Amino acid sequence: MTGVLSPEAARRRFVGLTVLRWLPVGVAVPVSVLLATERGLSPADIGVTVAVYGAVALLLELPTGGLADAIGHRPVLVLSGAFTIAGLLTMALADSLVWFVAAWTLKGVARALDSGPLESWYVDTVHRTEPGSDLTPGLSRAAAADAAGLAVGAVVGGVLPLLVDRSGAAALALPLFLAAGCGVVHVVAVLLLVVPVRTPTASGAAALHSGVREVPVVIRATVRLVLTDPLLRLLLVVSFLVGLVLTALELLGPLHLADLAGSPEAGSAAFGIVTAVSFAAAAVGSLLAPALGRATRGSVVVSSAVTSVLGALAIAGFALAPAVVAAAVAYVTFYLLNGAAWPLRQQLLHDRTTASQRSTTLSAKSLALMLGGLVGNLLLPRLAEGAGLPAGLLAGAGSMLLLAVVSLGLRAGRDAGAPGREAPAGGQSAHDPGSRDDQSGSLPGGLRERARAGARVHGRAR
């Protein structure tokens, strides 16, 4: 059965579930690499396990997004939670490369499953009762909750091994067991709090089988939508560039801080502190997104371009800083700016897709982000080896400047036949309701009707 939640109730559940989703991830972060090292894996071995995680998540991004659009948000969220728990428990018990690869594979499946359904559920729930409402406040609070869950989890996971009367691998495995317990809490919360937006046409194995058969159809329709919508294409380019920039900071940043601090140990401690503060800064930036939208009169072009230019300057400051403190300030500043811009750009994505394709479109965006990260992993270390760490970081700054140029095309109210029409203040689009059914015409069979029904519920073209 489906239910009707008020937008405020949906927002509270969205934020709470976001915290619970990222809390176990944060708990596991401080000990994952250390535990693998303690159990005999070399840095190269650990690199293989993380690469497997990235490859699995990359390959499954679009299929799992299509699965969410086909069978519903809640079943996919539960599946993601189950794979997360299995991955954490496997990692806690792993004692060889094969078992660590298995653990990261399970986590990669969980990540792919989780990349869009909860946010899609929130958007669809809100627009069911308030078509055309501004999503930015809810998205910004959820982004802040994301960062808060990671930060709190990282503190707990880092401190716990120091508080127990154990040492070595036994102590380092405890946070992973705790993280798995947090994952169980998250799954229970999903079952209790995620109210289906639409009544499923089948149940149990029949629904799953029917949904899996529809996955390729949804993916093809979403690809067709992206290829025919210039704004969606630009948003995917933005995600690709953000992935490249984040790789520059998160791959080369620890090495740069170690150079400034004088030793790997001191650099590791400094980067741990800077990372925690950056989570908080990203949360604050996300909360400032509505104010940024008002300050720019609802123009995502201005907000995205300005924050991108300032972000490029922050990365350059980090690359050229003479001391740890100055580098830390620049690093944190970038995450503050990036956090403020994200919800406003995310609103545009939701303004350009339908309920039947939303999770798949979000997965496409996540796929672009990971592709940017993959390219960054392949190219930036080579650049840093040949020209120095600052050069690799400055390449990230250059990518942010390119992102600023791409942002000039992000006009929220632009339709294919009406380029340049700006959205009203607050970031909402001004699409003609009469265009809603045109977009669903590319969907075959029952999906076309589902898209049309979704468009009527939302009250505007998605």
In brief:
With 462 residues, this protein is mainly α.
Polypeptide structure, described:
The chain is mainly alpha-helical and 462 residues long. It has two domains: 1-197, MFS general substrate transporter like domains (Growth Hormone, Chain: A, Up-down Bundle); 217-432, Growth Hormone, Chain: A, CATH 1.20.1250. Helices cover 80% and strands 0% of the residues. α3 (73-93) runs antiparallel to α4 and α11 (289-295) crosses α13. The protein is globular, with a radius of gyration of 22 Å.
Supply the key terms.
single chain, 462 residues, mainly alpha, Growth Hormone, Chain: A, 2 domains, 17 helices, globular, disordered C terminus
End-to-end Cα distance, whole Å, is 25 Å
What is the name of the CATH topology of the largest domain?
Answer: Growth Hormone, Chain: A
Estimated share of beta-strand residues: under 5%
Number of strands: 0
Q: How does CATH name the architecture of the largest domain?
A: Up-down Bundle
Largest sheet: none
Mean model confidence by pLDDT: 75
User: What general outline do the C-alpha atoms trace?
Assistant: globular
Structural class by SSE content: mainly alpha
Q: How many distinct domains?
A: 2
Can you tell me the CATH class of the largest domain?
Answer: Mainly Alpha
- Low-pLDDT runs of 5+ residues are 412-462
Topology pattern, helix = H, strand = E: HHHHHHHHHHHHHHHHH
- The CATH superfamily title of the largest domain: MFS general substrate transporter like domains
The DSSP helix count reads 17
Backbone CA Rg: 22 Å
The level of helicity is over 70%
